[in-house]
Amino acid sequence: MASLDLDNSYSEAQGRLSALKTFSEVKGDINKAVQKSQNEQTPNFDLTKFQDQAKELEQKIKKKVQNTFEKLIGFLMSLKGSATDTFKFIMKKLVSAIQFLKSKLPQLMTDVFMKALGCDINQTFGNENQNQPIYIKLSSIDLFNILNEDPTSKVGKLLYEKTQYQPNQITRSTNRGLYDFIQSPNTPNSYQGYTSNNLFTIKYVQTNPTNGDATGWYEVTPTTSPNDKVIKFFGDYYRTISMFEIKTLITNLLEAIFGIVSIKTGAGSVKIDDNTKFSLIVQRILGLCFDDEQEISVSGQAKTAELDDTTDSFFEMSGMDNSIIEERTKQIQNEVITLETCDNVEFPVNADQIIDAVESINFNDDGSNFASGLDQLNSMLANDPKWSAQIPYPQISVSLDFNFIKKIPLAVVSTIISPKVLLPLFIMMKSMGLVVDDSINGLSDFVKKYKKIMIELISKIGAEFVRTLFEEIKKDIQKLVTLIIRLIIKDESGVITSMIERLIGLARLIVNIVQDYRKCKSIIDAILQLLNLASQVGGGIPTPLMLFANLLPGYSPNRAFINTIEEMQKSGLPTGPLPDGSPNLDLQAKFSQMKGMDKEQKINGKTPGAVSLPPPYGNVTTISKSI
Question: How many helices (H) does the chain have, and how many strands (E)?
Fold first, then answer.
């Protein structure tokens, strides 16, 4: 049965994982100690050691994680140990997820928009008003004010496509094209789809003649026939653009952490506030659960499963949120930043230096050098004398990696919702005669007014990253559980060897449990099932099979030892290696005691019992041996 208390399930899984890892490590120490005693040789403990400061930093990182994506980062850290190595590993996996997302985005965006518009695959958009101009407000599709920047400027080079807009190219730089249209107002431009069909004619006009609004509009005249289908329009359009550029993604990632674009462009407090509010809303959406059942929070309050009741109040900022927004704006305006896990230390932000570094790295369009490029930026920042003077290099480097990873989903979302991606949505909404609110007042207002679209899009993007991390966690837990099962079976007699394959086979079946990676409980319950496989060795047998009880291994000192470790860790008692790296002899002593008691019980133990028989036999006293 799936756990209804999601937060407790995460804690249970983390505790179980920690206990299993400690068991595996201590068992290794014990085996080496026995070998040393027998052979009178010094064992070679092959354990990774970290400085106290590094351990403390890793603990801070684990405490910072909140939504499913971030909690899975915590699980991977627990499994793999080294924060530095784990983050490099995670980054490579997330790059693979980014590459996969980029290839699937045209279909994903089409699906999201079709669902939001209430369209099936046969929906058409041609009507009696076909080939009549419609007006799309510039601010409705340019949420980050990209089109205010010259593509040849320092910031513009990072926000636009590399090449100039060419209307006849198969893959064209449409964001650049939209900027060019602004520079040549009232000039019609034909836009052809991938199939060479004319999709629409577009030009920039300062004033919308239908309402007199002079804040900047695109006049778009769809070239349609009555039978043109919405799904075909989206597909034909999206195949003409690259959904996002890797360098722009990197830039948005650095903006999310350091505010480099806001600093360089001199963004005002209203814009910076809105950007931060947007990031907080994205984090909330990434934390939504789409489970079929209701979840019960730790406080005992029920939460609606899908969308967690995303009424307008969902988008309102709390007092704490407003404090975060205010502090973020203050820091960007002062050109400083604080990093999570680095307490309240303020680091100076040299926006020009960071932008120059990004520009100097030739990021490949396929993202193959995404991780290595971030490594270069990390090294540059962490070795900056103004930074390293406050926090030593290894620690600041780990903190940077953590922040890079944590902000990747936000950066991907920010990069995707660019003018060229949103343009066809507004063309279709207005062509279909739907009511469109043109009074978009910034990023956060857009998300609120088009919440169905944004929740669907953001949650599906987040789900891809969750899937990537889950797959790696599953592999590592399977290895750990398999190792522990083998350790248990090696120590205990009377267990059928084929049980190993049966349990490992069960572990592999977990892959079929999670079908929607937006379902929080499905993910954590799958992890718990994997972690609990080790403790199922020798588990109970249904009543009809009790005649085969002699096949059971009985009491296990190994399982008892795992449970002891877990209980000690809950109480805050030390279970890891000592500060100098030497094994925890207290745990070894406890295990030896359990082994001795188990040996005595198996050799000399007996269990009196009585069997109730029907009349006329009465009760029969039996003596059974405990094994």
Answer: 23, 10
